[in-house]
Amino acid sequence: MMPRFSPFTRGAMALGALAALVGCEPQFTDQACELPQDCFPDETCQAGTCVNLSDLPDVGPDADTDLLNACGGIQTLENDPGDPCGPCDLDQFECQGTELVCSGETECPETDIITTIPTLVNATGAQLNGQLAELPLVGLNELGFCWSATETSPTHDNAECKAITDVLTAPGEFQTVAQGLSAGTLYYVASYFIDGEQEVGYGNIIDFTTLAPAPTNVVATPADTTITLTWDEAAGATDYEVLRDGESLGTVSELTFDDEDAPRGTFAGYEDLSASQGTETDGIELTWSAGSGVAGTEVSYEVVATYPNAVSDASEAVTAQLPAPELSGYQVQIDDGAWTDVGAATTYLDEGAPLGSITLGSVDVSAGTYADRVALSINGSTTDTGAQRQYRIRATGNGISGPESPQISGARGVGELSYQWQRTTANADVEGDYQDLAGATTASHNDITAPDDGSERFYRVVLNAPGAEQATSAGASGYRATSAAQVTLVDITNVGIYTAAANVEVTNLGEPAATEVGVCVDTSSAPSYPASGSTLCFPHGASPGVGTFTLALTSLAPETTYYARAYIVNTTQTSYSAESQFETQPAIPGAPTNVVASTQYLDRIELSWSAVDGATGYRVYDASSATLLADISDAGVYTFTDTTTAAGELSAPTNLGASVDDSTAVNLTWNAAATSPGAPRSYIVRAYNVSGESVDSSSAEGSRAAPTITGYKVFRGEDEIASSLDANTTSYADSGAPPQPNPAAPANVMLTDDNPDSVTLSFEPVLPQPGDEASYTVVALAGLLSSDPSDSAEGNLAPASIEEYVVYNNDGSGVITRGLATSDIDIPAAPPTINYSAIDADRNNGTGQVALSLIGPQPSNGADVSVYVVAVDSRGEESPDSTPATGFRTADSVSYLWNRSDDGGATWTDVATSENATDDLSSASSGENYEYQVTISIGDIQETISGASVTIP
């Protein structure tokens, strides 16, 4: 059962909370002052007027300010952030900017006891606070608090509870300290009381979280490839998050962490790699400078502790870096292949580099020309360096590799040519039958050891050079001159795809005379008569005679190398001419397939197709006009780049608008520019070779892509004011537009001089003016491409508003007041002066009349006050000073009231209202005494002068 409190007490509690929330202290403003001491404690004196401190701008510290307050301002705070507030202290003060405000207005719980916000919260304890609204009718035995980290409604049955030492004897606040709490943990707390009947009552429930301390003594220790972090345990923390340069590396429950991914050291200094170009025949020689180790990048570490219900701030940062590695050697990469260790030297010879080549010249072997020899010669042989190889190098050590050097190329060189002539032992061109001719090691040689019976042998020459692959010529027939029949194959002409013409000359019919002559061809060397296997023989068909004739060679295969010899037959032997070699023309290639034209490139159309067997080149045509666009003579090229078509279009931005209603910037908006692809072109491709051109391929259509908008430029007149704006941007604020003119000086400034109580100021409001109009255009960008300018738009800065008028005292003493009022502005001024020093009462004997008069100077106006006004706009720009105005408090309206007393001043009777007056005492009795005084008023200024009296004789 909850103890009962009276309804009156509950109402008083609510009214008290409301009064505490809204405040009841009266506020006075515009009170005249000279010093801050003339004002209330929460006010200060500004320009002769008391103003509330909270109304002053919070401008930050200056040379006279020692410290900022808890909200970053300079005003003195009555409370601290986190202090309880609200009607029942159930809310907290918090910073909003530089101001300290209450976070809410939580209503008072309708309970007999109230739990308020805990204070002095640390990692292991807190002060628990409560308020007893009314003593129970049956008395109070105990007050205290129950709290728990697991129970949301703590009671004596499920939570830890603690009573205060001294039970309250009247309503009021009470508190106790809870200790032994866990850091970073959410707790629920409720106040309680036990009344005289041992009934327990609980207040409302408040939750709070204990502080979460950050880890301390963080140490970073670098090793070869790992930085090890250690730190002291944060009591109550469940685990720890490690940060490197602000990025999380992971969470651990231990007090140590190994960063195995910290930036490692590297190597440098060997990037000047060079390779020999044709100067070394043993290979390609690489050279470079010695490298050295470079330490890893320095990094920063922090550790954050995690608690059951909170996360700590980051620990103090520590820095570390991995050491420079020790260089142990180098690795070389050849043609983007695997890396090979080459040791610690700074040179390397690539002995496996490609060998150079030897190109054979023309070989001449005499056949029946000389009776005493066979003449051998080769002319025009050349050499070339080996194929280029690409190289990179990197340093290694401590298990890491340094950055790769730039890639360079080199080539193996080739030395001088050497020769070795060879001859067969039989009358056949057989590879295994060739033997070196002794002493035949020059480009020209006479073989005097050739068979003297004129029998045929075959000759070839083997060429060698250091750094090059060996080259061997084809076998050629040679023999000494004899009396046998002789025939010469002059040449092979009119070589076609399937046919050719052999021109033959019979020079000697021999003895006995030859009976048959013709030509034999084969795909192998030394074709012989009669034909067999793949050999084709073409007889002349008539009795031979000395002279020339031509034979048609038919049924040949396309693109085939043939060897040909003329033959002549008599009864004793068959003689052959020297061998000739020819190649039939290839078949006309088929049409290219898979022809594709691109549409994705801004500056070109890329055309591609599949390779065609037998083609030596390709021709690209405009499909619509049959115009030849390209003749590609390289059979290995299957692409064509067309840069002659029209480019895609980039239009100018549209609907450009410029504002005139913003005083801080001219705001521009526009519609995004549009793009379109270039005009399409249709292509066909034909393959060709020496035999002719294929039919058309299928057509393919392509175009240049529409440009992609990459941004915008903005111009004010001819001046570029913004470049490379984002492609999605269609607006821009020009804060640099022509500025507004400074405000004009206020006009018709006047001060009053007809009021005894005050001087008021009035003047005409200042009308601010806009900035000069500017003309704007926008250009769209697509990479290096720019659109035409948009249509222009005119805009200007709106007038800057007048923020205040500052009234200055013309005597140089500073600001009198400031604000936006332009009339009835009170100006501090001295009051008028009454000046009279005494009065006189003169009885005219015999008449019964008393003449009343004032002694001293007449009243005078108050001292002149002179002011001028300056207008200040929203930019902080000031107008010129206005023309000064002068005014004063007048003494023109003076009133008088004369009084008479016949009882020593106990009572007074009004007798006159003029400056000099007469009092009728004709009916007064002898011996009576009368006193006089006069009250002089000028506006709200009054002064009473006394001291005159008369006695009736």
Automatic annotation (TrEMBL):
SUPFAM superfamilies the UniProt entry points to: Fibronectin type III (SSF49265)
Keyword set includes Isomerase: no
Signal peptide location: 1-19
Coiled-coil blocks: none
Residue ranges of domain Fibronectin type-III in the record: 212-577, 589-694, 743-944
InterPro entries noted in UniProt: FN3_dom, FN3_sf, Ig-like_fold
PROSITE patterns registered for this protein in UniProt: PROKAR_LIPOPROTEIN (PS51257)
Gene3D superfamilies assigned to the protein according to its UniProt record, in alphabetical order: Immunoglobulins (2.60.40.10)
Keywords: Signal
Protein name: Fibronectin type-III domain-containing protein
